[in-house]
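Margin note from the TA: students keep mixing up input and output lines. Inputs are the sequences; the output is the structure of the whole complex. Example:
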Amino acid sequence: MAAVAPPGLAPGVLPETAAVYWRPRVDAARLQRIGRLWTLTTVAHVLPFVLAGAALIWLEPLSAPVALVCLAHAYVIPALYASRGANVMRPARRRDATSERTALGLLGDLVDHAERDLHAQTGVVLERGALGTWLVGESGALLVRSGGRRVDCWCVGVPDPELPSADRIAHLLLALRTDEQGFATVANLAFSGSRRRVRARLRPEMRPALDAASSRARTAGPAPSM
Amino acid sequence: MDRTGHSTLAEWQADDPAAVEAAVEAFRRELDRGYLAMVTTGPGKAEQVRELPVDADTVILRKPIAGG
């Protein structure tokens, strides 16, 4: 069996990373830095509104309505970011039933019994990686990192809108299994933050998958290297 | 993997040179069309291949992914 590396890429590296050559490869340390930056950015967005609201009330209690608007902004901005993250898992419109069934058969061959059941229930596939536990959807993936409290939401997909849903997941799953760090490098990070905030904005049928991923991330310990 | 769910491009046995040759041809044709060939190498692991691994159970051809 001949593993390949396109020109300039080491063996085992996802070939699609060549299209985003300017991006540093995403590893655990980089993910942690990105996560901290997201938290810092959120604080920087929220804190001025909270302080302004508090200052208004302190200076003039009659300005309470304006202060409430400030506090609402402080609430809404992180909520919008979390919604953007959860939206990466939004399923696309279903194609014809025959191709969906055929694609589902192939996807079923790629995962084990428990993951098949979870997919049937939630529409996403759970995959354990070295960076954490992944939930792979049709046009994006969630990464629940060790501890299960932080979720990174990645927007990534196959640029062919005609593919059936399960095929789209299978494409992403195979790419993820080939090179997890490369997968995260190619994908666009839509959000990094609290699992609780993402869960509240996920479609209800997908929430059990996030719970399962979080539970796996908490209990599984260090994942095998991929 | 394609719009029909998936299509079988070729089936072969390692000891059937004609079938292997036809499979290799079909394989190369799809690579030229931009598909990437993958084989599963264990639980949760896959590898990209550029030559048809005649001893593999299944070779899956997928399209490149991209950030959305």
